[in-house]
């Protein structure tokens, strides 16, 4: 699998796009989606919620297990992906595209986000 | 946790070449899924699925008193099983607790094959060996003698027919006969754990790969898919079939598990656990134990094993297995609940899903029954 070069990554397997007008898009990586198996339910933060880098802000439920969703950055939620709420399988089929999870107005970004190559190494390690 | 290396089946290299996600299951490295577990589940319900079940524990019992011995060691009437047939039964402790649930095949007058769950195979082997004392019967560990391949689903009879001359039409559910499949000697059993018609093929490990490949080729035109343990769990859950470690345990007797019918008090001779089981049966009559029911979620969050079942602010039971049901399109669960809340349609029943009480409908098991 290839992790898009233009994104940055958390060790908890979220990806983050470059912010446009201060707003970045967040999803989970293909690696994480594969590890979860078929995702059947997502619980996302609500628009207006404040999320904190490294803290849980939702749930991803697959056939076998439930996993916490972490936010890679601190900020205010500006949009959640209703398509993925209605069809959670988008997380598996298009993790970097239609399966994005939420948009966040970034107020603070941790220094330890990974590049695509660093994330590859993190996953391989 | 044991630090010993995971055991690998004869099909291990094949699973890896198919890109399977592997998982540690009872000390074995087994395929969890090859692609989407949902697609594998649907393949078994609508077409056919191919499973490697070589981790199951085969134990052969032979000797002139094999039948009397098994009647003593197990709760079922094994002596009454006819040659070529199989029986679902249990092995219990003296105190009535369930050690394992088993399928016993009668291969000949004086030869049986006992199939135990992978996680309990050693326990069952030890118990049978101990209980055989004083009987003219021999207990043989045959776990390494067999690979087990299952083909399950509505297309499975057609797939198998193209590879064998065995009389599959004459082979009833819960029956087994020796035959040849794709040139490989096999015990062909019409059993399974998916709620579908299907077959389990016990073969020598050195023949497993050849048989798997032949089934794969024969099944390709009708959509046969390799299937892992993940979909096996959702298939058996929809079919309302108990799983050891979830619905069954040493802390439950068969009567507590709603499976008292497998205990045959009327059979000849004494058997291990009889006294305790007679008490358990009487207790169940007077004071109904918790009842195994089905729960269907009204929402989309999934009830999981160990979650409390609640009603009116009280805990009234516990989920034993839960998963999203591909067939129903909603999360489902099996749970033991107090008898007062066990009737289908009982209002006000919920599951405490990580602190939130989510409403569920109580239904009779199974969730899914195939059309015959």
Automatic annotation (TrEMBL), chain A:
What is this protein's record name?
A: Glycine cleavage system H protein
Q: How does it assemble?
A: The glycine cleavage system is composed of four proteins: P, T, L and H.
Q: Which sequence positions carry the modification called N6-lipoyllysine?
A: 64
- List, alphabetically, the SUPFAM superfamilies matched: Single hybrid motif (SSF51230)
Alphabetical list of InterPro entries matching this protein: 2-oxoA_DH_lipoyl-BS, Biotin_lipoyl, GCV_H, GCV_H/Fam206, GCV_H_sub, Single_hybrid_motif
Which co-factor is required?
(R)-lipoate
Sorted keywords for this record are: Lipoyl
Please tell me the species this chain comes from. Answer: Streptomyces cynarae
Query: Sorted alphabetically, which Gene3D superfamilies does this protein's record hold?
Result: 2.40.50.100
Q: Which family does it belong to?
A: Belongs to the GcvH family.
Q: Indicate the segments forming the Lipoyl-binding domain, all copies.
A: 23-105
TrEMBL record, chain B:
Q: Which UniProt keywords apply?
A: Aminotransferase, Transferase
> Can the keyword Acetylation be found in this entry's annotation?
no
Identify the enzyme class: transferase
Which parts of the sequence belong to the GCVT N-terminal domain? 13-267
Return one GO MF term.
aminomethyltransferase activity
Protein's UniProt keywords contain Transferase = yes
Q: What is its EC number?
A: 2.1.2.10
Residue intervals of the Aminomethyltransferase C-terminal domain:
290-369
**What Pfam families has UniProt attached to this entry?**
GCV_T, GCV_T_C
Catalytic reaction equation(s) = N(6)-[(R)-S(8)-aminomethyldihydrolipoyl]-L-lysyl-[protein] + (6S)-5,6,7,8-tetrahydrofolate = N(6)-[(R)-dihydrolipoyl]-L-lysyl-[protein] + (6R)-5,10-methylene-5,6,7,8-tetrahydrofolate + NH4(+)
Q: What does this protein do?
A: The glycine cleavage system catalyzes the degradation of glycine.
Q: What NCBIfam families does this protein's entry cite?
A: gcvT, PRK00389.1
- What protein family is recorded? Belongs to the GcvT family.
Q: How does it assemble?
A: The glycine cleavage system is composed of four proteins: P, T, L and H.
Q: What is this protein called?
A: Aminomethyltransferase
The organism's taxonomy opens as: Bacteria, Bacillati, Actinomycetota, Actinomycetes, Kitasatosporales
Gene name in the database record: gcvT
